[in-house]
Amino acid sequence: MRIHTEYTDPSQYHSNNKHYNMDQSYWPDQELLAQFGHDKYFTNFCLAHLFTHRTFDKNVVGMAYIASSRKFTPWGICAKLGSNNIAFNTGLSSTMNTMGNNMLTQEAVLVTAH
């Protein structure tokens, strides 16, 4: 488990000059998921999930890539980097609802499990 207690230093940004943990107040949901997948650290694991506390557009509170259930297939659960050097074994969920309020614990658990 990796817990960030401060924003990532710009010297640690990826080749596209971004990092999922950079000081940026607004992230489109799909862009944040893709940026999270740029972290090569996560290719050491079969699944990586970003827990965040922010609002997204269009009532989105979580998302993930849909993977094959077969190991090591492209976009599969334990696959290596895919196109554009993005790991597709990633997902994200927020504990903030689209109105900017904290979710109930049961809501956050349901979003993450879904």
TrEMBL record:
GO terms for cellular component: plasma membrane. One of its GO terms (biological process) is membrane protein ectodomain proteolysis. InterPro entries: ADAM_Metalloproteinase, MetalloPept_cat_dom_sf. One of its GO terms (molecular function) is metalloendopeptidase activity. PANTHER family: ADAM10/ADAM17 METALLOPEPTIDASE FAMILY MEMBER (PTHR45702), DISINTEGRIN AND METALLOPROTEINASE DOMAIN-CONTAINING PROTEIN 17 (PTHR45702:SF6). This is Uncharacterized protein. It comes from Biomphalaria glabrata (Bloodfluke planorb).
